[in-house]
What does this fold into?
Amino acid sequence: MLRLHRVALIIWAVIFAALSGVLLWAYGPGASAARADWRRKCGSHGCGWSSAISSYHLAHAGVEVTIGAIPYVAAVWAGAALIGRELETGTAHLSWTQGVSPTRWLATTLAV
It folds into this structure.
């Protein structure tokens, strides 16, 4: 079982490690630098974003986008695995020649 899903496991481990590293940076040194810079810049005049604050914001925004995209990537991966075999063996084409539309075949295959 592990040999079959080794590539997926490695990809998810790399993504998890990268996102964890970014979040740990944003929690530790990134947050400290952004907080100190914000206090220094927001004294008597208006507040502006510096490089430390921009880096902190970029780290959080990047993690949010990546975490938001993970379900879609997983759905594409699973969908390809579900219908790939039927497309390769010709079962899908056989269904299509017997009056089942490709849309109905895909909906039925993914629903079951």
